[in-house]
Amino acid sequence: MKINNIAKIAVCVLGLLASSCDYLDVVPAEKASVDNTMDNYSQALGFLYECYRGVTIPVANDWAQGINQEIGQPLPGMALSDYSMTTDEWVMDDIQLNNNVLARALYSNTLSANNNFNTLKNYSIRLSMVFLFLEKLNTLGVPNGIVPESAATEWRAEAKFLIAFYHYCMLRRYGPIAIVENRVSMDAPISEFPGRMHYDYCVDWICKQLDEAAADLPAVRNGAETGRATSTICKALKARILLYAASPLFNGQFPYPNWTNKVETPGYGTELISRTYDQKKWVRAKEASEEALALALGEGDRELYYGSSSNESQDMIDKTFVPVDDVTDDFKRAVLRMRNVISAKPTEGNKEGIWALWNMASKPGDMRYRIVRNPVPKNASMLPQGFVYAYGTVSATLATVLRFGTKNGYQPANDPSFPPESEWYRSAGYGDTDEACRSHIINLNKNREPRFYAWLSFDGGEFGTLLFNGQRPVYVNLLSADAQGYDPVNAPRDYCATGWPSQKWVNPKSNITLNGKENYFYAPRYYIRLAELYLNLAECNAELGNIDEALKYINIIRRRAGATELTARMVAASGKSIVEWARDERSVELYDEMHRYFDVRRWCQGELLGYGKRMGLNAHVANPTFEEFNKPMSINLGHVYSWGDRMYLHPIDAQELYSNPQFVQSPGY
Length: 669
What we know:
Strand order of the largest sheet: 1-2
Distance between the termini: 17 Å
Helix content: 25-40%
Strand content: 5-15%
Low-confidence stretches: 1-32, 58-80, 384-388
Number of strands: 14
Number of helices: 23
Mean pLDDT: 87
């Protein structure tokens, strides 16, 4: 990376400091130069907040890669919907997905040294900003009495956390990275530029920074400080990093075993990724997850969300329909609870967020791309073509549908009481009501677990909780172009491409009136929530052969979700290993939370993302019959999906390679 230019770029970025405070509006209106960033306490605090910009700048909207106006580059922040849409979780309609340049490069295996978004450079700029902040804090802020030493100690810890975090963001994309420990002088010789270090060395270094930062940070923050670093965030991020490091891709199964470095890493030689399996990595990941969980449940004041009477009222329960035999209010309450687990606020009893940013809450664009088309009838809307601002284009794949459990706790393919696959796409036998097309419901969508009905929708089912005029859910009809189905005339690019509209991020309180007015309630961006730590421990224990412990943590998550608990007998009868069950539970609970992209890669399951692997129903047909619609098929829609093992890591930009001869390119590029 061209480190000798990073300091210069960071100075330019600081010119925008006056208008870019993300937590508190404390920065004076005038432009700030590097020399007066510590003129007063508010200015110094604003500089600290500027260091968080790599975290807090949201993408332009939920589906497209935004542009960082400061440097004219794509944003390096954590909103990874671009990545999510390239996995086997969900797809968009053909036009929307093909319009996304980053997504297209990711799913078509066309990233290269000359065709990438160089997030390496962007995070390097962020690192330089943090180092500059520390320099000015220690030479101006504290010596001049502007920042008390008590505050400076905490700020230094926050800076150390951000240094670790930005390194982690590079690590998960590029694998072995260069460790940047300080701001390199602009006249430094090329020989001082850092090269890639062994992956395990990078992991150890980042974890050390997180441990040191945690020692001087509070365990929890509330109010205006929500989103700033805490010791709980540090330990939870460390647990995730060590989980990744223990996973097959970085623990003996990397597909390019002969990939080596130009320079040696102390203790590792020129090797960049371990070629042999080490069980101790799973032990270390387990211990880190246990430490993080204990802190979160203790000083961190975190707990799983179990609902509230206001969010899951009896009126809402009464208005909720799910096609489950002998359904109870408790089952429907669980459905509503899991819809609220993302969007319920701390003031509503939701303390599950370990790291959540409310200033990055979902925006109208996010909601519109998830809410089904025509949520109110065309003849009720003031718009001539109906309510065109709801697109319903985020669509769960069949693979996602099959990972969700049945009401018996199995998956459809291994539940002895569930209809066989030959009957999945047949009518479940419901009759229509005056408003809802219940006869459209198929067996595959009947008798599923609460999370299935909380986060997915389907033909004949419901979308939202009070979305229709604030009174009831929207009744979904995917067989009609005038309702939610494919309409090649009026909405050729806005439709559900698979037959399963996704509603994970749609706040249950959101509604659209009959005259088209949007009343949206939003959810924050969850970077880490408590459920992840339980799932980390389930996976670690499964990999270590501790079946009872793995089941314990899986069932903590299932119990909260209102799903049937998993037993050792069920695991044995299913024909799936406990490791597979732990991975699937993670994929269900963390569905559409920006995990799947990296999980599939660290598990070395990239082949799941190849051509023809994304399946759905025959939804790309106008006004189909029931039989035409309910045919499982490959959902390609003109997308050139392709997988190659080089896609496990991102390529280094050609300019970075030219500027720093110490770097070696990622294998396969």
